[in-house]
Amino acid sequence: MMHTEKNCGEAFLNTCCNIPGKSRDNVSARVDIEEICDRVALHMQPPEGNRKGWLKPHAKYCLDSADKKEAFTWLKYDVMFPDGYCSNMSKGVNLATGKINGLKSHDYHIWIERLMPVMLRGYLPDHVWRVLAEVSHFFRTVCAKQICTEVIEKLQKQVPDMLCKLEMIFPPGFFTPMLHLIVHLANEALLGGPVQYRWQFCIEREFKYIRYKCGNKNKIEACIAEATLLHEMADATTMYYANDVPTKHNPVARYNSDEPKRDPKLLLFQYPGGKAGASKVENISPEEKDCIMLYVLMNMEEVVDFMSQFHDEMWSGRNGPTPTQWYTLLKEGAPPLNKSFVNWFHEKGADPNVEMTDELRCVSQGFNRRVHTHEKYDVNGYRFHTEFHQKNRPNAKTINTGVYTRGADDLDYYGRLQKVYELTFNNANIELKLFVFKCHWFDPHGGMRSTPSIGLVEVRPTTTYSGADVYVVAHQTKQVYYLSYPCQNEELMGWEVVFQVSPHGKLPIPSEDDYNNIDPVTYEGIFYQEEEQFGDLQIDIGLQDLHNDVQMRGETVVDLKDIAMLTKRHANKDNIVETQPEPNADHEYSYDTDFDSEAENPMPRDESGDECGSQGRVLPDGVEDPLFPPGVTKTQTEDGEDEGVDEGVDELEDEGEDELEDEGEDELEDEGGMHSSF
Asked: What superkingdom does the record give (predicted)?
C-alpha cells in the first residue's frame, strides 16, 4: 500500500503540475496518443507559418504556468498542519524552477489523501477534478484505521469504473503497472484487514535504525546481530525500573496529562488534561460566568433530574417546549419569578434538606470569577493553541487552533479556539477543576457545505454562529485543520476544506451506541468505520465530458532530443504518405481466400484472377506496388518466392534498416512514454 500510494501520488503531482523532467505527459506520451488514441486536440503540431518550433498543446489535466506558480506559492506559505501530523513539505517547494524536491513516501500519502483535491480544484475542469477527488477519497477510505466490510466491498465494485475514467483523461504512458494496482487495494483490505498492519512505514523505519547499527562495513551481519542483542538486553532490564523512570516500556508522553489530586465522582470532571506553558489571571463578567455555568450544568448527567424538576415548576404550556424555548427557559426562567436554572440550582445546593452529593453541591455554588487562562492545552491526544498564541508565534510551521464538536442537535460545529479557561469549584474541603474552551464557531447552516460522494466538508470562516453558547468542555472537542483553496474564483472564494485529526497515542473508545450497531456474531457494523471518514464514496459514471479534449494553447518543444525525434518521425510519415498509390475508385478490391493451403506465401487475387500487390490488395491497371518502385521488377524463383533482381531492392532494404536502428536508439534514450518503433 505504501509504495502504491507513493507512486500514484508522485504520478498525479508531477503530471498535473507539469513538473519538468518528471511529468508523464511528455513528448513521447503525446506521440503515443497520436498513434493509439483518437484525441486530435493533444497531437503534436509541426512548425507552420510564423511558428518555427514544434508545439505541444496544453492538456486539460495540467496546470498552466500561472496556475502552477499560484498553487506552489500556496503550498509553500499557506499550508500548515497540526503538530506531529506530517513533515514540513514547504521546504521542498522551489518556486524558481517550478519543482518539488525531497518528498518522502509519507509526504505523498498526505498529498494524495488531503492536498490533491484542494490544490487542483478550480484550475482543472470540474469533471477532471472530480475524478481526482474520487481517487483521493478512495485512498482515504482504504487507509482508514477501522474499516467496514460492506464499505470495502462496495469500493471493490467501483474501482474499475474509477480507473476507466482515469484512462479516458490521462495519456497511455501515464499508466504504469503501479497505477493498475489500485484495482487490488480494496481486495487486499478485505483479506488483510486495516492497512496499518500491512504497510511498510514501520518496516522502513526499522531498516533505517538497522543501518545506523552497521559500524563495521566489513562485517555487516555481525554488526547488526551484536547491536540488536545489546539493545534487547537493555530493553529487558528496563522492565524492572520504577514507574517514574522513562523507558521504552514507559515512554514519556508526547503531551502533558495532569492527574487530578483526587478521583472525582462526577463524570464531567474525570477527564484529565494537561496545561502547557504559563497562565494568566482574568476576571470574567457575571453574564459570561452564568453562560459558562449553564453549559456545564446542561452537560452533567447528575443534573438531569433537577432539570426535569425545574421544567415542572417553570413550564406552564400544554405541550413541551421546543429546543429554543427550552434553552430560553433555562437561561431566563419564567414569570413571575424569572429565575434562571443557574440561580435555581444554586438555591437547591444551598438548601441542606435537598439530597445531593458533596461534589454536586460544590458545583452548584459555582466557580470563582477570577479564572486562569492558558494559551496552550493538551487533551484527548491533541495539543490546542489559541488564535492569539498562533498569530504571535515566530516562524510558525504548525497550526493547532481548529476545534470540532458535535452538538446536542446532531449538528457538526467547526470553529477556532480563542481562550482556555481553568474553572475552580471550591466548597469546604472539596476542590474541583474543569477546563473550558471559548471558541469562534462558524455558522453550521449558512457557513458549511458538504459533498458526501467525495468526502469533502467545507466551511466559511467569515461566518459566525448566532447562538450565545460559544463554550465547550475541553475533553468534548476534537482537533481539525482547515485548508483554503489556492484558486480563489467566485465559487471557492472564502471557503476552506476541513479535515479531522487522529489523536496521538489514543484509540477511540466504543460507546454503548457502537455496540448496539454491530452484529454480535460477525462484529461488523458502523463501529468499524473510522469516524473521521465523512461521506460514502460514489463513483460518477457519467463519461460524456471525459471524451472532449478542447484545443488549448500549448508550449514550444525546446528539448533537442524531442525535436530530433519529432522531425525524423514527421519526415518518415511524409515519405510514407508520398509513396502510397492513389487508389482507383472504379476498381473493386478483394481478397482471394481460395488458395492452396500448402503454399507458404499465397498471393491474394481479385475476382478475375489477377495477382494482388504485396500489401494484400488487388492492384488496378497502371498502379505499381509501393514495395517495388519504378525500375524494380519481379521474377519467380524456383522456390516460388518473389525476388527483386534490381539493385534498387537491396538499397531500399538497407536504408530502411538504418532508419529503424537510428530511430530505435533515439526512442530508447528518451525518458517516459511507451512509444517504440521497433
From this structure: Eukaryota
Can you give the pLDDT at residue 559?
A: 72
Q: Which of 331, 349, 353, 350 is nearest to 340 (CA)?
A: 331
Q: Identify whether the C-beta of residue 163 lies closer than 8 Å to the C-beta of residue 190.
A: no
User: 592 lies in a domain?
Assistant: no
Q: Which cell numbers in the block locate residue 552?
A: 488549448
641: left (phi > 0), else alpha (psi -120 to 50), else beta?
beta
pLDDT digits (tens, 9 = 90+) for 548-599: 565 557 677 767 777 777 787 777 766 654 544 555 545 444 444 443 444 4
Which residues neighbour 24 within 8 Å (Cβ) at sequence distance 6 or greater? 11, 14, 15, 170, 171, 173, 174, 672, 673
Instruction: Please give the mean pLDDT across all residues of the chain.
Output: 79
Find residue 322's DSSP bridge partners.
Answer: none
Closest CA relative to residue 416, chosen from 466, 460, 359, 370: 460
Strand pairing report for 412-427 and 554-556: unpaired
For residue 173, which of 11, 58, 21, 61 has the smallest C-alpha distance? 11
Are 217 and 169 found together in one domain? no
The verdict on residue 422 lying in a domain is yes
User: What burial class does residue 565 get, using C-beta atoms within 10 Å of its C-beta: 0-12 exposed, 13-18 middle, 19+ buried?
Assistant: buried
pLDDT tens digit sequence for 490-507: 899 999 999 999 888 776
The pTM score is 0.76
Q: Are 453 and 537 in contact (CB under 8 A)?
A: yes
356 Cβ contact partners less than 8 Å away, ≥ 6 residues apart: 302, 348, 349, 364
Q: What would the grid cell of residue 38 be? A: 483518437
Residues 6 or more apart in contact with residue 242 via CB below 8 angstroms? none
pLDDT higher than 90, residue 220: no
Residues whose CB is less than 8 angstroms from the CB of residue 397 and which lie 6 or more positions away in sequence, other chains included: 80, 88, 90
- What lies within 8 Å, CB to CB, of 667 at 6+ separation is 28, 565, 675, 676, 677, 678
Whole-number Å distance between alpha carbons of 413 and 60? 37
Q: Are 192 and 275 within one domain? A: no
The torsion region of residue 104 among left (phi > 0), alpha (psi -120 to 50) and beta comes to beta
Q: Which three cell numbers stand for residue 376?
A: 496552550
Residues 282 and 289: their CA atoms lie apart, in Å, by: 12
382 DSSP assignment: E
Residue type, 95: L
Residues 29 and 168 in one domain: yes
Question: Residue holding cell 522531425?
Answer: 567
Instruction: Give the pLDDT confidence score for residue 544 in this predicted structure.
Output: 54
Cα–Cα distance, 67 to 71 (Å, whole number): 6
Same domain, 72 and 163: yes
Residue 112 CB burial class (10 angstroms; 0-12, 13-18, ≥19): buried
pLDDT in tens, 49-106: 777 788 888 888 999 989 999 999 999 999 999 988 988 899 999 999 989 998 999 9
Chain mean position to CA 460: 21
Burial class of 638 by CB neighbour count within 10 A (0 to 12, 13 to 18, 19+): exposed
- Domain check: are 184 and 59 in the same one? yes
Asked if residue 26 and residue 102 are part of one domain, the reply reads: yes
End-to-end CA distance of the chain: 35
Q: For the chain, how many structural domains are there in total?
A: 3
In whole angstroms, what is the distance from residue 611 CA to residue 292 CA? 100
Residue 247: Cβ-neighbour burial (10 angstroms; 0-12, 13-18, 19+): middle
What pLDDT was estimated at residue 166? 92
**Residue 558 CB contacts under 8 Å (≥ 6 apart), including other chains:** 53
The three three-digit cell numbers of residue 664, written as one number = 530505435
CA neighbours closer than 13 Å in the CB half-sphere of residue 310: 29
Q: Which domain covers residue 106, as residue numbers?
A: 2-199
Count other Cβ atoms within 10 Å, centred on residue 255.
21
